[in-house]
Specification:
This protein is mostly helical. It is built from 41 helices and 6 strands. A hairpin with a 5-residue loop joins strand 3 (376-379) and strand 4. The two termini are 66 Å apart.
Length: 928
């Protein structure tokens, strides 16, 4: 009798929630009843605990596991169906109930009073609505996973439409025929009066009710615009609490209701359910993505009313754009600026969570092109075809493409730049790791890509503005920041496609001569290039990405080199560093081991030759540094004209022998080191010379002898995916960082074939040897076997004539200048000569410009979809784990142990382990 007295006393005060939550996991009336008892009725009181028990999203995701839902689907599927029906029915009723939303507590006393009464007398409608959303967030991913490509359970529970008898409303006699359209002709012919018609038996009229899924999406939309729940109550009109107004100031709205922590948190909860509904497509394999479109996403992008689409689209965009420009002083915003604060407090504030969720929803709906949501392809008059969305395919893509106001473009551009600037400032902080990176930068970049892809007017506005160069610099800086992170290589690929898209516009090329206005971190500025133009920074950044990624990013090399080829006709006054970088890329791409290792590699060499040709045709005298670098590399160009498979294999074998000899010599030096140290007082100096000798391996020396920079030739070769080496060819004239020529001597004379006889290039010889086929088999990768026929097919198509013509014309004149002047003033004379040279009477007419644009294909659409959803998946793993332990089929999930940040280890040792080790964070497969 007295055993229950403590519970009786404390129950009204709501102090037994923890015990009730523990009982939900352990007792038979808890979660276990869902899969142990068959056919639980919808009216059973068992379901009430799903609405009142949980207090936070973490409660739902910790007390209801994916294993519980999966077991219930297998053992008692009807209970899962009942759970979905009960939860959605309660959600619909609560939204329309006058008690929702519950009034927020006005003071601490009222808050305590309401807390004590919740378990006994009062219902908290807002809490029940939130718990309904959370339970659906937990259950639906498991349903999607178990269903896979089959939709039987979902069609029965969520998408089944029921026909019911239509209640006939009494109407005037003249309005009756509009309900029986099929019988209009019969009625006009018979001429019977109304009495005769009333005696004739009428077929029973029926109407189709919307499915549960359709009503759920309508409810979600209403909750996003519910006054007192997601919007301030001051904008409520009369008793209508659903008011479709744009959340924040920006596109389509000039009023700003101001932020509210509770409203932001509620919006995040609703958007999370919307994202879960849209995530149905991650449980479809890539091959079936277009043939098995998600019913949920199709309904959102095709069936949502126009008013709802516009309001939601503008609300999401404004929330994202205002995130970096807001000046609201909150505890979270102030605490986020404290150095290393994120290492102590792992959570994120409600505003950051809301912005990230808005970006994820935007990226998902703007990317969706599956089944009938695919853009309509239309002929644009020329050879190319274009596709564009419509309101019948994807209303979100359509209305984003229709934005046209200049102030809206300025608003979007300033917001995106502000987010990228914030991230750059964090990476350039004096205290490494002291501030947490902006968590939604990848989604911001994808959103920017979608805007410039869909809205041509915005793309034109961007390229005509002064911010175009800054955007390019931000994108390149972020690429340099993440290039060494395997989990970010998919985003690197997206950035390369964005840069290619921008480079195809002539307005972009015209901006490349402008200086960069933003503060670029010094670690990404090459020596001697601190005051270069946008074109210089573009070249040096692309070189750095290719030269330092050890071949792990070879999938993005074509897009980056195409961007250089698109921009080359607009290059002016390239610096010595940028010119040398172009020659280094060309020399590495012409390396035999690189050329013969993959079937697609010669295309990169072709594009680099196009870069040189474009500069020669359009701005020859404006680029003396690049022109001189090309002339000094004349030997490399000549050898390409006579390249054969046998010669390439011999060069590869020669370089391999050099490497073996150097390795054996290094091993001997290592063994003899102790004896030499004891025998000679100069051993330290000799060791230093040996290390320097190994670092400056002559087989890696680029033909152009520039001063030392932050990236070596070894890095460049490794970045192209191989360990090949090139032959050392020291030049008698070596350009410095400040002038095209500074050293003595004369340039080696060109051969007679190079002097105006490009068309007489030597024909391909068939000097194959017996071991060529075996050697070629060891060079090719992934089963590729280079043959002489294959070499001939691309070698004869290389655009070498223009470069060889320039070399044959200018080389003798430069030699004469060097021979007739002193060493001190020959550099200035050569620079003046190259700036005044004109070859219009020698060169053929400049070809028309045909920039290579990025073209979407089915494979690229699937790749971007998997990239977007991969990012959503990773964001959802902490703290809730929305899709954890479910079998995702769209992409591969790889769990790895991430390395601990050095700053965390250091500070942990200082303060005695205050900072806990960083949590394991799964990474997506880098196959995207």
């Amino acid at each position: 009798m007295f055993a229950k007295l403590p519970q009786t006393l404390t129950a009204p005060f709501g102090l037994l929630t923890d015990e009730a939550k523990l009982a939900f996991r352990s007792r038979p009336q808890g979660i276990s009843k869902l899969y142990t008892t068959r056919h639980i009725a919808e009216t059973d009181s068992y379901w009430d605990q799903y609405f009142a028990l949980f207090d936070t999203p973490s409660d739902v995701f910790s007390l209801i596991s994916t294993h519980d839902i999966r077991r219930a689907l297998l053992d008692s599927p009807e209970n899962v169906a009942t759970l979905i029906r009960v939860v959605t029915s309660r959600l619909f009723n609560l939204v329309s109930d006058h008690t929702f939303p519950s009034a927020p507590p006005a003071s601490m006393a009222s808050y305590a009073t309401s807390f004590m009464k919740t378990s006994s007398t009062e219902r908290n409608a807002t809490k029940e609505v939130l718990n309904s959303l959370r339970v659906l967030q937990r259950v639906l991913p498991v349903v999607f996973e178990v269903e896979g490509e089959s939709n039987a359970f979902e069609l029965e529970v969520l998408w089944k439409k029921v026909e019911v008898d239509d209640e006939i409303v009494p109407t005037a006699p003249e309005q009756a025929p509009q309900f029986v359209i099929e019988d209009d002709d019969d009625g006009s012919e018979s001429g019977h009066d109304s009495d005769t018609q009333s005696q004739t038996p009428q077929p029973k009229r029926t109407k189709t009710l919307p499915s549960l899924g359709e009503k759920l999406f309508t409810c979600v939309n209403d909750l996003l615009f519910c006054c007192g729940f997601s919007l301030p109550t001051k904008i409520q009109v009369d008793h209508y609490k659903i008011n479709y107004v744009i959340w924040e100031k920006g596109i389509g709205s000039t009023t700003d209701p101001g932020p509210n922590h509770a409203y932001d948190s509620n919006k995040t909860e609703v958007l999370r359910l919307l994202l879960v509904l849209l995530s149905r497509q991650i449980y479809i394999p890539p091959a079936a993505l277009f043939t098995h479109p998600s019913f949920y996403t199709l309904h959102v992008v095709r069936k949502t009313p126009r008013r709802d689409v516009l309001t939601l689209l503008c609300s999401l965009l404004n929330t994202v754009i205002n995130s970096a420009t807001t000046n609201n002083m909150t505890i979270a915003s102030v605490a986020g600026k404290v150095p290393y604060n994120h290492l102590v407090f792992k959570g994120e504030d409600s505003r950051t969570a809301l912005v990230g969720m808005c970006l994820q929803v935007l990226c998902v709906v703007l990317d969706f092109q599956s089944g009938p949501a695919r853009d309509i392809v239309s002929d644009s008059g020329d050879a190319a075809t274009s596709s564009s969305p419509t309101t019948q395919t994807n209303a979100f893509r359509y209305f984003l493409a229709k934005l046209h106001r200049t102030q809206d473009f300025a608003f979007i551009l300033s917001g995106i730049i502000a987010i990228l600037e914030q991230q750059l400032a964090i990476s350039n902080n004096l205290l490494p790791g002291s501030r947490k990176s902006v968590p939604y930068v990848p989604e911001t970049i994808v959103l920017f890509w979608k805007i410039i892809e869909l809205n041509k007017k915005f793309r034109a506005y961007l390229l005509d503005s002064d911010k175009a160069v800054d955007v390019l610099a931000y994108l390149l800086c972020y690429s340099l920041e993440i290039k060494d992170k395997p989990q970010q290589h998919g985003l690197c690929r997206a950035l390369s496609y964005i840069i290619q898209t921008l480079s195809a516009e002539s307005a972009f090329g015209n901006k490349l001569s402008s200086p960069i206005n933003i503060q670029i971190p010094t670690k990404w500025i090459s020596q001697g290039a601190s005051h270069g133009t946008a074109g210089d920074f573009m070249i040096t950044s692309i070189y750095s990405i290719i030269a330092t990624t050890s071949g792990s990013l070879n999938s993005i090399y074509p897009a980056l080199i195409i961007a250089l080829a698109n921009a080359a006709p607009y290059f002016k006054n390239l610096s010595v560093v940028a010119s040398n970088r172009l020659l280094q890329l060309f020399t590495s791409f012409s390396n035999p081991l690189f050329l013969l290792s993959d079937e697609s590699h010669p295309r990169l060499l072709f594009l680099m030759l196009e870069v040189f040709n474009s500069v020669i045709f359009h701005h020859l005298s404006d680029n003396p540094n690049l022109l001189y670098a090309v002339i000094t590399a004349q030997k490399t160009f000549e050898e390409l004209g006579t390249f054969t498979l046998a010669r390439g294999l011999r060069e590869i074998q020669r370089v391999q022998r050099i490497k073996e000899e150097q390795a054996s010599k290094a091993e001997r030096d290592r063994k003899d080191g102790p004896q030499q140290e004891r025998a000679s007082v100069e051993s330290a100096h000799q060791e230093k010379l040996r290390l320097l000798k190994n670092e400056s391996d002559p087989a890696f020396t680029i033909a152009l002898d520039i001063e030392s920079t932050s990236f070596s030739g070894e890095d460049l070769e490794a970045g192209l995916g191989g360990h090949e080496q090139t032959e050392t060819r020291p030049l008698t004239s070596s350009p410095s960082e400040n002038s095209p020529t500074t050293s003595t001597g004369t340039i080696t004379a060109a051969s007679e074939k190079a002097r105006g006889k490009m068309k007489a290039r030597r024909s391909m010889s068939s000097d194959t040897i017996n071991g060529d086929r075996m050697a070629a088999a060891g060079v090719g990768r992934n089963g590729f076997l280079p043959t002489q026929e294959w070499v001939t097919s691309w070698q004869q198509g290389l655009p070498l004539d223009t470069v060889m013509l320039v070399i044959s014309e200018l080389l003798p004149k430069i030699q004469n200048l060097q021979a007739g002047r002193q060493k001190a003033n020959s550099a200035g004379a050569i620079t003046d000569f190259l700036q005044s040279v004109t070859l219009t009477d020698v060169l053929p007419p400049a070809p028309a410009l045909y920039p290579r644009r990025f073209v979407w294909s089915d494979a690229s659409i699937v790749w971007l979809t998997s990239l977007i959803w991969g990012g959503v998946y990773v964001h959802g793993m902490s703290p809730l784990g929305i899709w954890n332990f479910t079998k995702v089929r769209l992409f591969f999930v790889k769990h790895t142990q991430t390395q601990q940040r050095q700053i965390t280890d250091t500070m942990s040792s200082v303060v005695g382990g205050l900072f806990s080790p960083t949590r394991q964070r799964p990474e997506r497969s880098s196959n995207q």
